[in-house]
Amino acid sequence: GSQAMLLYSVMGAHLVMVGAGVVAMILMLFRLAGAATASRENEAITALTIFWVTTTAVYTVLWYAVYITK
Fold first, then answer.
1. Whole-angstrom distance, CA of residue 33 vs CA of residue 28
2. What does the alpha-carbon distance between residue 61 and residue 59 come to, in Å, rounded to a whole number?
3. pTM of this prediction?
4. Interacting residues of 24 by C-beta distance below 8 A, sequence separation 6+
């Protein structure tokens, strides 16, 4: 029913977050390989790190909500 739809929607949105994070990391790898590091690059790395940690935190909450509390 509606709970299953909500679950799949939330998990799908999280999957999109993970995919975006992986793509961003790959792009950052190419950017860093082609240029010397500058302060702007460091800011981009920090932003990507914050995004990835947030994504991991969301996964932890989803895992608890789906698999522990059922």
1. 8
2. 5
3. 0.72
4. 48, 51
